[in-house]
């Protein structure tokens, strides 16, 4: 069974229940995520004993706002459109990723998942050597890519084929607003003579990015170059804490199969689709333990085989 056949097997009632959005559930999750960021950031700013040990934790909390941006690009975390827009903008500003531009990028990824030459996520190949792996995990390439995209868009030179020509002025304006906000924050920090933004935001982001890279590699790394979402995307059966931090996106094959299902209903979708998933992993450590031994070889994705019972 492929993902289309699975979706066709769902009743109208199941589809309605699975795609029901909730401001209450979204705001509760948002409060937990931002509450943790503000709490840890406050402890760092107050220079509590051993505060440097909190920097990586703050970094993980910050960089995983990417999963909120990702969810908001689908307009699914909240029922109210303005809440989705606010979530996208706030998370995009924090992680340096323009939300409108990312939405076009991400929709192209969904439309052409694992199709070489069409999926924009395949523009940069997945690591297949230790040097590539360590460079990828460092996060350096993604920071360079974010900076280039922001500068290119702000200059009005966006030529990405997944961005509609009629929307490129909006993408330009978005990038200019973001750069303006960053310049205002820099000016304010210099005027106040405080490095607080460095320690509660910028440095933690650098320390947290490797954790996000390790997480994201599991979504499609070593998956098949086929159109079936049950084969070209991996669901990672991680623990509840990781699922909460990542807005349930470890249920990634489920998300790709049915993108309009909000984060809080993905566990329900997982229970329905689990017997048909072709690529699953017990956890992120397990995934990388399998991935790493083949780094010096020439391993390449093939058609996925169903996991052993």
TrEMBL record:
Domain of life: Bacteria
Keyword Flavoprotein in record: no
Molecular function terms from GO: sphingolipid delta-4 desaturase activity
Keyword terms: Membrane, Transmembrane, Transmembrane helix
GO biological process: ceramide biosynthetic process
GO CC annotation terms, alphabetical: membrane
TM region(s), chain numbering: 26-44, 50-70, 82-102, 177-203
Entry keyword Ubl conjugation: no
Pfam family, one: FA_desaturase
Domain (Fatty acid desaturase): residue spans on this chain: 50-284
InterPro entries per record: FA_desaturase_dom (IPR005804)
Name listed for the protein in its UniProt record: Fatty acid desaturase
Originating species: Hoeflea marina
């Amino acid at each position: 069974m492929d993902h289309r056949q699975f979706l066709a097997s769902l009743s109208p009632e199941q589809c309605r229940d699975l795609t029901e959005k909730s401001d209450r559930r979204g705001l509760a999750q948002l409060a937990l995520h931002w509450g943790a960021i503000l709490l840890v950031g406050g402890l760092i700013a107050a220079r509590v004993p051993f505060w440097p040990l909190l920097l990586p934790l703050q970094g993980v909390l910050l960089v995983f706002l990417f999963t909120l941006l990702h969810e908001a690009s689908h307009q699914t975390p909240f029922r109210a459109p303005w809440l989705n827009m606010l979530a996208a903008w706030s998370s995009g500003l924090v992680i340096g990723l323009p939300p409108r531009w990312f939405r076009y990028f991400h929709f192209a990824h969904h439309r052409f998942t694992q199709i070489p030459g069409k999926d924009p996520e395949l523009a940069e190949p997945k690591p297949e050597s230790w040097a590539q792996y360590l460079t990828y995990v460092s996060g350096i390439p993604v920071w360079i890519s974010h900076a280039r995209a922001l500068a290119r868009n702000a200059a009005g030179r966006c030529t990405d084929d997944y961005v509609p020509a009629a929307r490129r002025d909006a993408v330009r304006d978005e990038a200019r607003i973001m750069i303006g906000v960053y310049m205002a924050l820099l000016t304010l920090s210099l005027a106040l003579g405080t490095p607080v933004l460095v320690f509660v935001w910028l440095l933690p982001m650098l320390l947290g990015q490797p954790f996000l890279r390790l997480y994201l590699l599991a979504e499609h790394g070593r998956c098949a170059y086929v159109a079936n979402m049950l084969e070209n995307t991996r669901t990672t059966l991680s623990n509840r804490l990781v699922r909460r931090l990542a807005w349930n996106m470890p249920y990634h094959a489920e998300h790709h199969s049915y993108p309009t299902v909000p984060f809080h209903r993905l566990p329900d979708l997982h229970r329905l689709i689990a017997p048909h998933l072709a690529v699953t992993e017990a956890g992120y450590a397990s995934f990388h333990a399998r991935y790493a031994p083949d780094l010096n070889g020439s391993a390449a994705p093939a058609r996925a085989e169903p996991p052993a019972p």
